[in-house]
Design a protein that fits this description.
Chain lengths: 119, 291
């Protein structure tokens, strides 16, 4: 399991307007491309210094492909990253705070302590 | 030596800018009360007549990331650009540029390291809403130079709560030992109980009003020891998954000092969080100010 890589995916997509739209419209293709091309790019390093070993496991890949925010929470993804990216993708389809409240309600079966988010 | 003109602690609700500037049907019903409280809070800084602002906040994964995460970082640059694309997108925050106060930043770095705080530094820091929200609320003309100090309340492992208090005490001493005739205000923002991305988010009020009540009392009365006795990294998870931001309030309690009652205390129970505003005047209340 790679909580770090999930967070890295959410972080790099959330801060790039084009990637936000790409992930909204084509989650499967975006996850496949990102894992192949971006996962092993060391941030703040040139391409020649890319690493070699970072990869999602099957459940992580599925959760990202399916926009499954509940599964991402349970996998220990940083909840701020998931929330802010998913608001960017889906709030526009809903009324004021409607998406955010539904987002929380989908997790109402989850009780304390929440999954560890340390990477 | 520099004078510590005011110590200010508050929440940093990113929706304030949009709520306070909205009109007509877009203006939320709580906006007028919120604006009135903010304007009274702003006056507490105005009356202190500061020349420089030391601003304690926390990057929200905008620039600082898990490949190289500092626990405490001082920004040392002549200018700071502010707010990121995803804050414009989500909160409607404007882009800003703030001047830096490099001499004070250098002093805090040198003196802080010598006091055994392993401070990171950045000569190329873009600041986010944890610092621009208090600029918008407290100094909207954005005319004073700043020294940003970022703390990690966001990406475990986090420093212990007592470390935030210790850093606050050190910041107080370092500001007062700065070789300058400037008047310095230290402003820090954090959270009371808060949940983001979890099942308790965006409720009718903060996820744990009982914690909020106790937290406001600790801060208002300067009860650092009582607060430290009840708060731990583990316990802060219970009132809401983003409540570790309360440690920035604890840092500000350290700046204000043990047992120091705040000169201005105000709160506003908003949807999904309680707003809270505190001001201390270490050298006495400025003329015409409230008590």
């Amino acid at each position: 399991m790679s909580k770090y890589l999930i967070d890295k995916f959410l972080y790099t997509v959330d801060r790039d307007p084009e990637l936000v739209e790409r992930y909204r419209e084509d989650p499967t293709g975006t996850v496949e491309w990102w894992e192949a091309e971006m996962a092993n790019t060391l941030l703040n390093c040139i391409a020649d210094e890319r690493t070699t070993w970072l990869a999602f496991d099957d459940e992580e890949r599925r959760a990202l492909r399916e926009h499954d925010h509940v599964a991402l929470f349970q996998l220990g993804a940083h909840p701020f990253l998931t929330l802010t990216l998913f608001i960017a993708m889906f709030e526009r389809d809903h009324g004021p705070l409607e998406y955010q409240k539904a987002y929380g309600k989908a997790m109402e079966h989850i009780s304390l302590p929440y999954p560890d988010i340390a990477t | 030596m520099a004078e510590l003109a005011a110590v200010i602690a508050s929440t940093h609700h990113p929706f304030y800018y949009r709520a306070s500037t909205s009109t007509g049907a877009d203006r939320p019903p709580f906006a007028d009360e919120w604006v009135a409280k903010i304007e009274a809070f702003r006056e507490t800084l105005t009356r202190a007549e500061p020349d420089v602002l030391v601003m304690v906040g926390s990057d929200h994964f905008h620039q600082l990331w898990l490949d190289n995460m500092p626990q405490f970082l001082v920004g040392k640059a002549p200018f700071f650009d502010a707010n990121f694309y995803n804050e414009e997108r989500e909160f409607g925050l404007p882009r800003m540029t703030l001047r830096g106060e490099e001499d004070l930043a250098a002093h805090l770095l040198r003196d802080g390291l010598d006091r055994d705080f392993d401070l990171a530094f950045s000569n190329e820091l873009r600041i986010d809403h944890s610092i621009t929200c208090p600029i918008i609320t407290l100094r909207p003309q954005a005319d004073l130079p700043i020294v940003p100090i970022y703390t990690n309340i966001f990406a475990p492992p986090l420093p212990q709560p007592k470390r935030f208090v210790q850093l606050g005490r050190a910041i107080r001493e370092m500001v007062e030992s700065w070789d300058s005739d400037k008047r310095v205000a230290v402003i820090g923002t954090g959270h009371l109980s808060l949940e983001l991305g979890g099942p308790r988010q965006f409720g009718e009020h903060g996820p744990d009003p009982e914690f909020d009540r106790k937290a406001v009392e600790w801060i208002a009365s300067g009860d650092i020891e009582g607060c430290l006795a009840e708060v731990s990294l583990e316990s802060l998870h219970t009132p809401g998954n983003a409540t570790h931001g309360f440690m920035d309030f604890m840092l500000m309690m350290g700046v204000a000092g043990e047992g120091q009652k705040a000169d201005h205390v105000d709160t506003l129970d908003l949807f999904h969080t309680m707003e809270a505003y505190f001001t201390w005047y270490p050298n006495g209340v400025p003329a015409g100010s409230e008590r």
